[in-house]
Protein 1
Amino acid sequence: MVRQRWSHLLFFIVLAGFGLRAFVAPQARFSGHQRHMIGEDPVGRLKVYVYDIPSTFNKKVVQRDMRCLSHMFAVEIHMHLYLLSSSVRTLDPDEADWFYTPIYTNCDLTVTGLPFINNMPRMMRSAINYISTRWPYWNRTDGADHFFVVPHDFGACFHFQESEATARGIYPLLQRATLLQTFGQIGHSCLKNGSVVIPPYVSPRKVFNHTLSVDTPRSIFAYFRGVFHDMNETPNGDRYARGVREAIWENFKDNDLFDISSEHPITYYEDMQRSIFCLCPLGWAPWSPRLVEAVVFGCIPVIIADDIVLPFRDVIPWDDFAVFVPEKEVDNLEDILTSISESEVKKKQRILSDPQIKQTLLFPRQSVPGDGFHQVMNALARKLPHETSIYLKYGQPSALNWSAGNASDFIPWQL
Ligand SMILES: *[C@@H]1O[C@H](CO)[C@@H](O)[C@H](O)[C@H]1NC(C)=O
Ligand SMILES: *[C@@H]1O[C@H](CO)[C@@H](O)[C@H](O)[C@H]1NC(C)=O
Ligand SMILES: *[C@@H]1O[C@H](CO)[C@@H](O)[C@H](O)[C@H]1NC(C)=O
Ligand SMILES: *[C@@H]1O[C@H](CO)[C@@H](O)[C@H](O)[C@H]1NC(C)=O
Ligand SMILES: *[C@@H]1O[C@H](CO)[C@@H](O)[C@H](O)[C@H]1NC(C)=O
């Protein structure tokens, strides 16, 4: 029954491609509050000082491995490039609201392209040592007016598996800093109060290269490409995706409405533009680049990651265009998706078609109004002015534990 209703709808959507387009108003319907914030210009609202630190923390790491310019953790690099030429930058640290340390902790890669997690805290520690001994600003607040981009799986917990990440905790020297991170989960110890949840990096150039015409029919009902099982699962502890991806595979591998596979086709981006729903289940962490890709390709994201904190959630109307499925309901995915009415689907697609929403999730080489960089700067501006209590009193000792950490973290970072 249900399936039949959907086959009608698919047919309708295919046929109605042209007619519908006339009604795809660029002014999507979401609350005025969010609409106002989404386009705010950060210039004049904050000043950021960019520390000049040795290129072994940034430029030289990239030169050694260019893959990190475009992988999902690349915001740490593009944020630096943006800030160097941004109008929010100040060359006078005495007038800065925020201090930024350009450090690429995710750019030291294994042969398979994954960041070396054990080197991240070491690199971070060396950089903080560097800035805190050469400038007076870190010690003034224990880093409370400093921000860091920490785009790894569990942010500044620097591990990809939840139990390990939780055991490590947020790196001790970052206890007071503001963290810009892709990891977001309500109440999690790797998401500190005051952090800014940002989107992972998806290459705008690649998106542009693979964009199809807007009237491309959406003939795939639900789409997913990615791993269902991970070899790093530990027998007694971490289960990959808390079993959600495995359940998706077991339940729907033979279901015609679900186009799912672990093979990554070269038409991946095109396929998303031919799909109505794009499944975005958690992996090791709740977030993934699929969230960004689904939105930029107008495919309704089906978010299966309990307690996820989505990027820029006070600005982007996620509730209006995404579908949220509790992890324990994953077996009912077909019923849940097929019972969403046609008008609801069209409403979500209309909101997703708003270029302004897509722009919030991208970090283009040349910054444009409303893009991810502007959202980050606006989020930092909204945290101003700093409370006077962040400044340590004269003679007050640092509250940070400079001797905490794995012994290997104390080896100075070098290439
Ligand atoms: C300390 O770091 C080393 C290498 O960086 C790693 O092998 C070891 O597991 C770490 N120990 C702890 C307790 O995290
Ligand atoms: C900041 O504090 C650290 C540790 O207490 C100290 O080693 C360093 O010299 C201080 N920096 C400055 C610029 O005084
Ligand atoms: C988080 O920080 C904000 C201010 O930045 C504060 O108003 C709020 O009470 C804090 N929440 C918790 C749970 O500490
Ligand atoms: C985009 O397409 C251009 C021209 O075909 C090509 O040179 C470039 O490498 C592509 N970029 C990406 C990121 O795919
Ligand atoms: C600082 O960290 C060290 C090493 O983990 C620990 O032994 C010590 O108790 C900590 N100090 C404080 C004040 O928490």
Protein 2
Amino acid sequence: MNKMKSASQTKIIDITKVSKYERYIYRCLVGPFRRYKKRQEYLEKAIPKGFHKKLLIFDGEIVGQIEYAPAEVSYYPIMDDNVIVMNCIWVLRKAKGHNFGKRLLQDMIKSERDTAGFATIALEDHWSPWFIKWQMEKLGFKPLDSIKVAHKTKHKGQVFSVYFMWMPKTENAKPPKWKKEKFLEGITFCTAHPLYHPQTWKGNIFEAK
Ligand SMILES: CC(C)(COP(=O)(O)OP(=O)(O)OC[C@H]1O[C@@H](n2cnc3c(N)ncnc32)[C@H](O)[C@@H]1OP(=O)(O)O)[C@@H](O)C(=O)NCCC(=O)NCCS
């Protein structure tokens, strides 16, 4: 895949309201499709308020995705009326290194002209390959704050950091705030997320360290 070819054969489509791609609203690029209640409730609340999910298609194959929403209806407890939160971004390993991540990000920035900036999370010392801090930094996000946590049932005793990441639209944009303690609850809207909170677990799934 050379750069000329990748540029001409790549398209990004917003699948938020396209029934043909419904399964990709519920699941990641890979993995089983299951229409589950928590996700359904989340989408019903978030879509009317500005949630978007987009796919990057290269040469007819879906190789990347980005999902974002206004802070109020995002995955993370980030407080600000005028901030867009990137819930997730993913480019398949086989398609890495062709600026597809950056293109998905730029597409979000172009679509969300009126926002003060973009926030997301990053992880350090987590056992999964997800949300690695240097990767989020490469995309342009910078850390504002962090919390150290441990999972209550998995990899017991392993402490990892959750970073609150920010990318202002303009230099003087006011950074948003987050509710650190809310992170301990985890995330119920995406079963593939490294901070997933299983439906059967009562109470916080993480403890502060
Ligand atoms: C982060 C991610 C989206 C980047 O996508 P990508 O298409 O591989 O990256 P790009 O080609 O757009 O590169 C973005 C920047 O990172 C740099 N970069 C990418 N991979 C790199 C590597 N292995 N080493 C150093 N720099 C690297 C690129 O040079 C580029 O920087 P530049 O703009 O200064 O040149 C991708 O790595 C990914 O999907 N990671 C997992 C994300 C994740 O955890 N999702 C959550 C799932 S639950």
Protein 3
Amino acid sequence: MVTCTVIHPNTGIGFELAAQLLAKGNYHVLLACRSPDKGYAALQRLQSRDLPGTVCFTHLDVTDDASIHAAASQVEKDYGRLDVLVNNAAIGRAQEDDLRKKMRECFDTNATGPAILGYAFEELLRKSDYPLKRIVNVSSGAGSIGRMFDPNRKAVTHYGRTIHYQASKAALSMVTAQQALDFAPHGVKVLCWNPGFTVSELGPFNKVEHGAKPTEEAVRPLVEIIEGGRDGEAGVFLSEDGKSYPW
Ligand SMILES: NC(=O)c1ccc[n+]([C@@H]2O[C@H](COP(=O)([O-])OP(=O)(O)OC[C@H]3O[C@@H](n4cnc5c(N)ncnc54)[C@H](OP(=O)(O)O)[C@@H]3O)[C@@H](O)[C@H]2O)c1
């Protein structure tokens, strides 16, 4: 069994990723959620599908170091290693009106959390002998600085100003690049991927009527990345359509 931790799989892309991995039969998926109620509800929904893989819940809040280290200790105790880590949690709409607070909130969840998680699980990933061991950071095209200056880019205006989200995802690119270099000696790949506009709870416009694609469609390329299908494209920001974005 490949032991895979999916961070925040209770809704949207994370939930569908857990379902698609479980359907394959060779994954043991750890649902790492901050809310035990939502986590156990997701666990029940997945178990009711009678998929061949195995699944369990672990508590983890990406903004809380104690919970990150407790989750890593639990994984160490239960499995002695980790094969795949998917950093999926993010917020698009910070609760705060004040920009400084919004920036803090988004950076804490979207960039600092994955950075701390990567290092917290580094030793467990190092211990894995799975040949495709890796971290996949789910990012966003909104964090691509190169795209900002592309005259053909369609600017997303319906959310208003989202500099807090964009800047936090740009920071996630640097977290990915630094950890890709740091973990390479352990044989651990660190990749960054944008799912594209998808139905989820991320914001009020993530709905079919606004052009968002279904999660089933969005997640298939992520499974391909987890299974090494795009390993030839080292050091790029992978996009949803099989191509890449400028960093
Ligand atoms: N959907 C899109 O169009 C789109 C496009 C580009 C990139 N993405 C990226 O895809 C990933 C998944 O997002 P999604 O679209 O599936 O959105 P989602 O349905 O809102 O899922 C995001 C998850 O992150 C968790 N989360 C929120 N705040 C958190 C915090 N402070 N600490 C820990 N976890 C927290 C949420 O848990 P709770 O339920 O407990 O709040 C939720 O399960 C994100 O990284 C997002 O940036 C999505």
Protein 4
Amino acid sequence: MSKHQITNKCTSCHACGQVCPTESIFYGHGQYVIDLDTCTGCKVCVPVCPVKAIIPAGGEEGSSSGTSYEEEEN
Ligand code: SF4
Ligand code: SF4
């Protein structure tokens, strides 16, 4: 599973920070950020974000490299 990151679409609503099982999401530099050292890529945070600001780290949205992270179960 790929680690995740938060883009600048984040509105700091705090929703994701409450659901992360590894407490990898914290507030810093004006928005929420994910600690890639502890993020397990579980994707629990992805569906709770109202602005879809959480994306796989290293993979751009809509990139052609192939990984789409819809609601697939692992
Ligand atoms: S993918 Fe999982 S471990 Fe990583 S920040 Fe989101 S909820 Fe936390
Ligand atoms: S749920 Fe989305 S908008 Fe809310 S704090 Fe997390 S990344 Fe930001």
